[in-house]
Design goal:
Elements lengths: L3 E10 L2 H20 L2 E8 L3 H7 L7 H5 L4 E6 L7 H13 L6 E7 L17 E7 L3 E10 L7 E7 L2 H17 L4 E6 L7 H13 L6 E6 H10 L6 E4 L1 H14 L7 E5 L7 E5 L16 H13 L3 H15 L15 H13 L3
Parallel strand pairs: 1-2, 1-3, 3-12, 5-10, 8-9, 8-10
Antiparallel strand pairs: 4-5, 4-11, 6-7, 11-12
Helix pairs in contact: 1-9, 1-11, 5-6, 7-8, 9-10, 10-11
The chain binds 1,4-dihydronicotinamide adenine dinucleotide (NAI) and magnesium ion (MG).
Amino acid sequence: MSKKIHKVAAIGGDGIGVEVVDACLEVLDALAERDGGFEFQVENFDWSTERYKRTGEFMPKDGADQLRAFDAILFGAVGAPDVPDHLTLWGLRLAICQPLDQYANVRPTRVLPGIQSPLRHVNKDELDWVIVRENSEGEYAGQGGRSHPGLPLEIATDVSIFTRAGIERIMRFAFKLAQSRPRKFLTVVTKSNAQRHGMVLWDQIAAEVAKEFPDVTWDKMLVDAMTVRMVMNPASLDTIVATNLHADILSDLAAALSGSIGVAPTANLNPERETPSMFEPIHGSAFDITGKGVANPVATFWTAAMMMEHLGEKPAAARLMQAVETVTADPSLHTPDLGGKATTRMVTDAVIAAIRGRN
Ligand code: NAI
Ligand code: MG
């Protein structure tokens, strides 16, 4: 029988993004070798801030279109100390997510074995969430501008865009995801007391879509109160859906509560599979530790497990997560962000050994 081929575009980007993506490609090779039923065809892209400094562009003009030929995209991080963050984010990451309509950003959070949550007394079953971030509109739609530069009446606007179509599709995705999890429980986060148009539309559409999912229980939270609930009562949450900005912030909090931003994964999905989806760690390019060989690769390995699921390779995804959890359970394999002394190399080698079944 011929092997299934998965075409993966690898974009390390900047800083530790390159380090963790390189480590992840080694892990993917080991996974394919062990499985035997599929192989990866990986193409590496040097799209980055370094390329921007050299050519004036983070990626070619038809970059997003080039990616359509792939089954999935593995992304590191983009951002450099000497280029403004709004240029790097809009020049590469959003320049891929938006044209490829990866509208569902999915961020699972669990406390992995061996890792300590900063929340005292929380045991690992009490913090098991999936945050769904609306990934195409809201506060990051790109509408707005600046006028009268330098004058006292200089003005800058960022307009939050909320459409019925955009809210309905993310709400349906979130209810479906909640339905697929044992607790069948969804929390819809808004700020509909202060933001009285777009967020009220969110609440209204949540109630409409809920009728299609009678077996899913749901509740509503205002985003500020949600931060309190996440810290004080983590076991009361399961699946969570929120706008682009709100979920961006909540998911960094979630990552911290799970022990480190170095373990937190993300999938940017086009659920209809009209375009390739993109998988990345939540963290950025971390200039403070770039080149030191101590970046925690676990977030990228976990995101690769999500990629394997998406590609239909469920046993390989489960094997990878099991290998990751075997490794996190051993404190001598914790990188400095988790309070340990291990290097990216050590963690990567240990995960590969666990995949091969040698530990
Ligand atoms: P960051 O996530 O890069 O770093 C925050 C802190 O967490 C740093 O102390 C860093 O050392 C630590 N950290 C992050 N990932 C780690 C890992 N895998 N292992 C160990 N420690 C880790 O966020 P920061 O400092 O706000 O941003 C740095 C640059 O990255 C900026 O240019 C920012 O715009 C960009 N960025 C890019 C993202 C993306 O491409 N998706 C996401 C977040 C930030
Ligand atoms: Mg963020």
